[in-house]
């Protein structure tokens, strides 16, 4: 699976949009981009995923560049409860190779 | 659904003792994963099962670690003998998988915090 690069930490004011970048310059055509987050002392939680097109759900939006070498997770109105470590993962969906490899992620601190 | 259930939530044991961690995956999920998280190494995949069969155990640190999945609703991770460096949070996760292009998500349990003194 392709390697991802994320900034180690970011700050965001409550109510503002949080934009978390991820570089995955070696991504292959059949690899998806996944985002998970881990709130302190809890297990990671799925946020969103995408292949080529931008995606949006009730939690966040995922913007993938046209060359697919980078992506941005957007939390449109960050709250204090969004303080967490955010992981960007690329994964090939193949039978019997369904594992996720977590990197170091970005620690997002939302402040009042 | 109750989600992924792990027990115990906290375990404190002495070096050399056997430790058994338990996991009940979400009903209907056919893949189960064991992870270990420490400050130094982050979140590491230890082993995962598909349809109760171990698929990849390359992350299991050494022979002291073993994992079983006797049926679709139960898995154990055993450490024997335990050592202080095994202290970590151990997460179990489950998912429903199938097909080459079937994006999916893993659902994580609350974790077991293991302390070996």
What is the share of helical residues of chain A?
Answer: under 10%
Helix fraction of chain B by DSSP (H/I, runs of at least 4): under 10%
Question: How many strands, what sense, and barrel or not for the largest sheet of chain B?
Answer: 7 strands, mixed
Q: Uncertain spans of chain B, ≥5 residues at pLDDT below 50?
A: none
N-to-C SSE string of chain B, H for helix and E for strand: EEEEEEEEEEE
Helix segment tally of chain A: 0
Number of strands of chain B: 11
Strand order of the largest sheet of chain A: 1-9-8-3-4
What is the molecular shape of chain A? Answer: globular
Strand content of chain A: over 45%
Strand content of chain B: over 45%
Q: Tell me the Rg of chain B in angstroms.
A: 14 Å
From the spread of the alpha carbons, the general shape of chain B counts as globular
Protein chains sharing the most extensive interface: A-B, 25 and 30 residues
- Overall mean pLDDT score of chain A? 91
The sequence of SSEs of chain A as H and E is EEEEEEEEE
The value of Rg of chain A in angstroms is: 13 Å
Written description of the protein model:
The complex is a heterodimer of chains A (112) and B (117). Chain A is mostly beta strands and 112 residues long. In chain A, 0% of the residues lie in helices and 46% in strands. Chain A is built from no helices and 9 strands. A 5-stranded mixed sheet of chain A has the order 1-9-8-3-4, with no helix packed on it. Chain A has a 4-stranded antiparallel sheet with strand order 2-7-6-5, with no helix packed on it. In chain A, a hairpin with a 6-residue loop joins strand 3 and strand 4. Chain B is an all-beta fold. In chain B, 0% of the residues lie in helices and 53% in strands. Chain B has no helices and 11 strands. In chain B, strands 2, 4, 5, 6, 9, 10 and 11 form a 7-stranded mixed sheet that branches. A 4-stranded antiparallel sheet of chain B has the order 1-3-8-7, with no helix packed on it. In chain B, strand 7 and strand 8 form a beta hairpin. The termini of chain B are far apart. The chains are: A mainly beta (112), B mainly beta (117).
